[in-house]
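Structural biology now treats backbone shape like a language. To illustrate, our science desk offers a sequence and the tokens encoding its fold:
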Amino acid sequence: MTTYYMGGTAYDNGGLWFTVYYPNASAGVYKLDIATKQLVDTLPTFGIQPQGVMMKGDTLFYVMENFEEMPKEFML
């Protein structure tokens, strides 16, 4: 059984957008129809580990945490 790690959520007219940041191959932003409990949209992200998502009008924003992609010399 695969375990999925979710980041943020945002409500959008009967749908719930949410981010998945692990496993990396499944990283993206997904939309769930609340009434039918079915996935209705999937958006790939630039990079891995999307952590947050929000709606503003008709625009969807997501926030990345690129910890795994950062070069080691940038880590403290």
Remarks:
- The first strand starts at residue 5 and ends at 12.
- Strands lie at 5-12, 15-22, 28-33, 38-43, 50-56, 59-64.
- The mean pLDDT is 87.
- The radius of gyration is 14 Å.
